[in-house]
Amino acid sequence: MRGMPALPMWLSENAARLQPQQVRRLVGTMVILRWIGLVWVGVLGILTPPRYPVALVLIILGIGAYNGWAMQAVRQPDDAAVLRVARLVTLLDELTYFAFLAVFTGVATSTVYAIYTFMLVEAIALEGVQGAVQAVALFGAGFGVVQGFRAAVMHGPFLNVDWLLWSLIFVFGAAMLTGVDRILLAGTGSAERIAPTPIPASQPNGGREIRLSEREREVLSLVAEGYSNVMIAARLHLGESTVKTHIEGLLARLNARNRAEAVAAASRLHIL
Questions:
Q1: What is the C-alpha separation between 132 and 253, in angstroms, rounded?
Q2: Is there a contact between 63 and 42 (Cβ–Cβ < 8 Å)?
Q3: Which residues does 105 contact at the CB level (< 8 Å), separation at least 6?
Q4: DSSP SS3 for 228
Q5: What is the crossing angle of helices 116-127 and 79-103, to 10°?
């Protein structure tokens, strides 16, 4: 994607657990919620002035900047780039939360901590268990850094009990939300992206197992929707010869003579 900053490899190499359109809807929803949150923070800053108002303004401007970028980036046709955008803004949300926590001391502590629930839901929706672990670990580390900052700069107490209590709350909350997430994904058919399992073939290939890669599944899904080789190549940003190779491999594995037979065989085996 043009204009997109270089990202760390760990932000882009993990396989997606959601379909591209689901990622786009998630990013679009979070863009809207982020604008609403910025309005709320602005009003809160007026009603309860923070100790460092300039820092709060800078944080609000920073969130507005990357949220506006995400709003534009999600409209790009490159599915892989949109996934990278989603992962990056999720991480930025978590980091800016702690920046906000460090400078805003006028709100009830429990209210500020509870706001992190939105970050947890966002991370789990995008990455499942991996997102839950990242969000909870970041909360524990970020909370400690913020408390250390307040103790050193503001000469306030280090809230050991709050740190432990809220870390445990988010551990249990993450476990419950992850369970609900897996149930919802199973109902929409996206669960196979979490842990693809080999599907036994009852007829093609003499009863042997058929294992499809993530890319082969994407190609097969587009074939089932009636896409031509050229259209598949454009959609997945592949060469036309690469798409042809994938389709020939699918025909051989499914013991099919043409696309229609391949789709029918895949449907019988519940691969699609």
A1: 37
A2: no
A3: 50, 51, 150, 154
A4: coil
A5: 160
> Where does the pLDDT of residue 9 fall: very low under 50, low under 70, confident under 90, or very high at 90 and above?
very low
List the chain domain ranges.
9-193, 199-268
Query: Contact 245/213 with Cβ under 8 angstroms?
Result: no
**pTM surpassing 0.85?**
no
Return the CATH architecture of domain 199-268.
Answer: Orthogonal Bundle (1.10)
Alpha-carbon 94 to chain mean position? 13
Whole-number Cα distances in Å, 27 to 50, 87, 103, 192, 246: 30, 9, 27, 21, 30
Phi, psi (deg, nearest 5) at residue 34: -70, -40
- Type of residue at 30: M
Q: Return the pLDDT at 209.
A: 62
Neighbours of 25 (CB within 10 A): 14
Strands 199-200 and 209-210, bridge-based pairing: antiparallel
